[in-house]
From TrEMBL:
A GO molecular-function annotation: DNA binding
All copies of domain Tyr recombinase, residue ranges: 201-380
Keywords on record: DNA integration, DNA recombination, DNA-binding
Protein name, UniProt field: Integrase
Biological processes, Gene Ontology terms: DNA integration; DNA recombination
UniProt keyword annotation of Zinc present: no
Lineage, opening ranks: Bacteria, Pseudomonadati, Thermodesulfobacteriota, Desulfovibrionia, Desulfovibrionales
Similarity remark: Belongs to the 'phage' integrase family.
InterPro entries: DNA_brk_join_enz, Integrase-like_cat_sf, Integrase_catalytic, Integrase_DNA-bd_sf, Integrase_DNA_bind_dom, Integrase_recombinase_N, Phage_int_M, Phage_Integrase
PANTHER family in the cross-refs: PROPHAGE INTEGRASE (PTHR30629), PROPHAGE INTEGRASE INTS-RELATED (PTHR30629:SF2)
Keyword DNA-binding attributed: yes
Organism: Desulfovibrio intestinalis
């Protein structure tokens, strides 16, 4: 008995994979995850073969039947659809596959990104795109095929990741157009096709009493010595989490009480100076005997050649009792911004210390030292303020 749309919609997942037959070899495979895939069963030279047709509901029942009929006509003419796909892939130069183009694009842009951003971008592609269309010629990828990949991410509830992955794919397609490997950006066709994530501000704490309690909890944290130092230093310097975890000893001048973050490590691609308070210097002097022989202040527990995980600070905050809705590693920046403005410090000095973007690129190359004397005073006053709040708590 042929399938109907109603029967397909009512089909629920079971503990094991099962199938619903349509006709002429077409059937629907339902996985325990709830995913539904169209398959075609056919024979050539008395040998059974199976061909994937697509995922339901991206491929409707009518479209699946149309594709089945097309493949059956090929089989009648003695053409094996699976073998044809393999031959077509073999005929295409490997450098035209989506994954090859994506990696080439990433390499070309490596000098424009921070190391953390480059790693995260490639990891997102490796997890969500490459396993499905990575070995397909980029010029042959259709919008529905890419949407099928994005739907998998969306189904996990990772709406922001879905948005970012689509954006990465769009940049890769544009690069492929520029290098003659594709003719159009199919990712651009998918704008609005996936659910839009609600814009959320990173959680933070700005009530002075609550900040005092947070500082007290951080001070009493029972993490490893290296993580303990990182967690205590984070609110004092309020840099971006990636800048903190990638900090190297060669960037610090303890005598001058200064941390100079190189341009290639910052979001704005310009040198950023962080004046160090006496409290910050004390933490660094405590940390140096532990990691000073290596490059990174906060090396990974697995290997000293890499920095600690990008989630280490957040995990430490959870262990001292703060939920992800209350504060995250990035939240120390909003905390400092809010309270320093309330304490009456120069707004321009605060913005410069936060290393917020300078629209004028020429000016950005020289403004790393703007308001530096005032920023030195402000960073020491900030550390003293946090210490006082901790003592009051």
């Amino acid at each position: 008995m042929a399938l109907s749309d109603m029967a397909i919609k009512k089909a629920k997942p079971r503990e094991k994979i099962y199938t619903l037959k349509d006709a002429d070899g077409l059937y629907l495979e339902i996985k325990p995850s709830g995913k539904k895939y169209w398959r075609l069963r056919y024979w050539i030279d008395s040998k059974e073969n199976r061909l994937s047709i697509g995922e339901y509901p991206l491929i409707s029942l009518a479209e699946a039947r149309s594709r089945r009929d097309e493949k059956r006509r090929m089989i009648k003419d003695g053409i094996d659809p699976v073998a044809q796909v393999r031959e077509q892939k073999a005929a295409v130069a490997p450098d035209k596959f989506f994954e090859s183009v994506a990696r080439e694009w990433a390499q070309k842009n490596a000098n424009k990104w921070t190391e953390g951003h480059a790693e995260l971008s490639l990891r997102r592609l490796e997890m969500n795109i490459f396993p499905y269309i990575g070995q397909k010629p980029i010029g042959e990828i259709s919008a529905p095929e890419l949407l099928e990949c994005l739907r998998r991410v969306e189904a996990r509830g990772a709406l922001e990741v879905t948005r970012r992955v689509r954006g990465l794919c769009s940049m890769i397609f544009r690069y492929a157009i520029a290098t003659g490997k594709a003719e159009r950006d199919v990712a651009a066709d998918l704008i609005g096709a996936c659910a839009t994530p609600k814009k959320q501000h990173r959680p933070t704490i700005t009530d002075p009493q609550e900040v005092g309690r947070l500082m007290q909890a951080i001070d009493a944290c029972s993490a490893s010595a290296v993580v303990y130092c990182a967690l205590r230093l984070a609110p004092l310097v309020f840099v971006r989490p990636g800048e903190l975890r990638n900090a190297e000893w060669c960037e610090f001048n303890l005598e001058a009480a200064e941390w100079r973050i190189p341009a290639h490590k910052t979001k704005m691609r310009s040198l950023h100076i962080v004046p160090l308070s006496t409290q910050a210097l004390d933490i660094l002097k405590e940390l140096h005997p532990l990691t000073g022989d290596g490059n990174f202040l906060f090396p990974s527990v697995r290997t000293a050649s890499r920095p600690m995980s990008d989630n280490t600070i957040n995990v430490a905050l959870r262990r001292i009792g703060y939920a992800k809705e209350e504060i995250c590693g990035h939240g120390f920046r909003a905390m400092a911004s809010t309270l320093l403005n309330e304490l009456g410090w120069n707004r321009d000095a605060i913005e410069r210390q936060l290393a917020h973007g300078e629209r004028n690129k020429i000016r950005a190359a020289y403004n790393h030292a703007e308001f530096l004397p005032e920023r030195r005073k402000m960073m020491q006053a900030w550390a003293d303020y946090l210490e006082q709040l901790c003592q009051k708590a």
